Amino acid sequence: MSKESVYVTRPSLPPLADMLPYLEKIWQTGILTNGGPMHQELELALARYLNVPYISLFSNATIALITAFKALHLSGEVITTPYSFVATSHALMWNQITPVFVDIDPLTLNLNPDLIEAAITDKTTAILPVHCYGIPCNIEAIQAIADKHGLKVIYDAAHAFSVRQGQRSILSAGDLSVLSFHATKVFNTFEGGAIVSPDEASKRHIDHLKNFGFVDEVSVVEIGINGKMNEFQAAVGLLQLQRVDAAIQSRAEIDRYYREQLANVKGISFLHTPADWSSNFSYFPIEIGSEFPVSRDALYHHFKQHDIHPRRYFYPLIPEFEMYRHLASANIANLPEAKKVSERVLCLPIYPDMPREVQQKIVSLILALAQGAEA
């Protein structure tokens, strides 16, 4: 097999020959940004593909999150998960909003609805759940709590591109959903992101905010930011959208192979998957239990010695980082499920063009340890 290092995922790149006609069009128009033709085409194409009402493209998902909170006029406190990438809570802090961490459901690893109401105060303005690994949150329960207490709901849907529950896109849940199109995601524009809106007025407001608050050449109506996706990113997105179904299918085959090969390994377990969930196979997390001969961290370092680089998503927990430790909700004693999972989950490499020999090497390293042999 190749001696190249293998990472948890790798960017999916469109063929250069396919990219050249798009670059020529950009050169011909001379429009590089500011909602050019590629940008407009990608917004419409994504709205159709994802079956959502309106979508606004952004330069990256963190700026999209920051803008989403501003669009909904959030303040005070927002209830969120401790088990996510730091961008989720960082975006709150950039808006001078205090994240309030609530423990996760041990099956889905998503924000536990049963614990949300106890965390609501007179300062709470919203709930910010994450569809962790693309597994849908308990949308109905969260919305019922939000309606009861007059709160907004914004979903961090960075992992949830094209995910459905039944026949419904989970991106239509809540007041807004935010997507990531980072290079390592199922669908990417190298860097990029988007906000899914329920109506035209919300989209118009968001589009003003992401463009400095401009309405026209001489009118600025609010304090906005520069979050625009450029034409090069949009061109990549248009090409990637042609290939995303095949990419998801390839990921599904790798997912199936891992499950078949590791199904009977003591101490290795897979996450709970909802029966009506349409996965995008964005990650392949396994949980390392006490029956496995070595710890999660020992397995992680063993892989690295063999040029395999899985990820401990998400470790440490967000509230364990220095800038969050002062918060009352950051007390790890109140987040036992998140803490346990953060020390046991390992995401194995999964990407569309991953060679079978690499998959076999990853499985063999696990099986050798399970059998007490040195790989």
TrEMBL record:
Residues recorded as bearing N6-(pyridoxal phosphate)lysine in the entry: 185
Does the keyword field hold Transferase?
Answer: yes
Query: What CDD domains does this protein's entry cite?
Result: AHBA_syn
Annotated catalytic residues: 185 (proton acceptor)
Q: Name one GO biological process term.
A: polysaccharide biosynthetic process
Question: What keywords are assigned to this protein?
Answer: Aminotransferase, Pyridoxal phosphate, Transferase
Q: Does the keyword Transport apply?
A: no
SUPFAM superfamilies recorded for this chain? PLP-dependent transferases (SSF53383)
One GO molecular-function entry: transaminase activity
Pfam families documented for this protein: DegT_DnrJ_EryC1
Instruction: Tell me the domain of life.
Output: Bacteria
Describe the family membership recorded for this protein in Swiss-Prot or TrEMBL: Belongs to the DegT/DnrJ/EryC1 family.
Spell out the protein name for this chain: DegT/DnrJ/EryC1/StrS family aminotransferase
Give the species.
Answer: Undibacterium rugosum
The organism that produces this protein has a lineage beginning with: Bacteria, Pseudomonadati, Pseudomonadota, Betaproteobacteria, Burkholderiales
